[in-house]
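Study both lines:
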Amino acid sequence: MFTYLSLGFIREKNNRHKLTFIITFLSYAYLYCLDRANLEPVVAILIMAFFYFYKKEKHIIAILFLALAAATKIYPILFVLIYVSDKRYKEAAMVIIGTFLFILFPLIFQQGGFEKNLFFILNGFELDTNVSSFQGAFEDKGNYMLQGSSLFSVYKILNIKMNLHSQNMLTKYFIFVGLLALISVFYTVFIEKILWKKVTILTCLIIVLPHISFDYKLIHVLYCVYLFINETKSEFDQKLNYKVISILFGVILIPKSYVYFSKILTTTTAQNDVPLGTFFNPILMIILCTIIIVNGLKEYGFSNIRSEISDHIRAIKKSIVYIGFILVLVIPYYSYSKKAKENYFEFKRNYMLSQENFSKGDKKQGLKNLISSFNCKPYKFQIALQIANTYSEFGKYDSAIVFFNKALQIFPGCDAAVSGILSIQVNTGNANAIEALNLKKYEEAEILFNNTIERFYKLPSNPNNNAFLIGLYSNLTVALINEKKWTEAYKILNKISELDPNNEFLKSNLPYVNSMLKLKN
């Protein structure tokens, strides 16, 4: 799909298939995506489709694809600035509205309902950054970092190599890139006129500025290249050095994982596998954007900024209804976001209290806190399991099975939940079988013991459970002896012998069963 759309950007018909194949399939960006099997190429296809239909001025279809891309991974929403720079605020508003609808509408059909799933998203999928494998990459000290194309990686490498030990690295970085982003966006909206230059600047912002940005994002450089190749003569800028731009695009898209930085470790592998590209790719993209911006300022300057802003204000007034509709979506979103935070803090508070009470040995109060925590987030299968196990410890098996089943609803096939249910069935089955044995219902006891033993063998292997299994076999033997099933009783006694040859029950009953078998024969 990406290749098909790319063909439309190559004007040279004789060589366009060859050019498209080389640029796409032999680029480092494509090869890295192929290796990672990441979702990024899907997003790139949707964005490429947006530009394809944007160039053909089929804006309804273009808006649909951009909204889909932004709903898949939120950062493509930045390309709405293409419409803003064109003073097409109606279309820009439609992209934002479409993104909201594509994100929110499917939540109605997800397990747990709309509100719970929205809370889950608003809480950032509730990823705990304190236990993130990326944490070491952002610490002020240490030589751990991430591979990728973020400008933060350059900052971290310089910090390590120059032994600076900077404090509050992320805070300083966010302030710097925030200013950089504002300047770039202002230039893109109010000064730059040529599409490929706008797209290149916005794409570089998407790749370079986030503090986490892996190399599969370089796939987005490809549509910048195709738009650059497809530039028309009317757009051709005599002042811009196109050879330099071509070389920069080429160097960004070639592999650089041949030389690695010494004494710098990746967070995930703790190996010296941070390649030169981690340092040079962000710098190359910054250089590319700087050349475009400096050239644009020389050509257009700031003389028309006032009239540009006036034109934008008039365009906003014409599209006020659509912009107002965005506010209609944003206000409830903000309200839900606030409610989601309160819900999350209540969840965390109860969860921390539960763990504190468990550590003190107050399991009853710990269980109450845990249930309150689960009521805030009824899709946390780990908490459902902890509640079920606690109920099981208290002997409240019916309540335990309810929460084991809730865990299975959230995470079908969860081994711990299946094992928990089987364990309860073994315990309750054993109790029912012993009751039947005491009531001298030997046939019923035999069936119950056999079912319990069958479930027992489905449990995860645990050598400490041998004593329990011997107890099951012993009681089953009693039932079989009372039914005068000597052959079956002899087989069960042999199983006990395999587990514990010195077992007292075995010593006292095996001779008797042997003698009865001889009389029978």
Residues 252 and 265 are 23 Å apart (CA to CA).
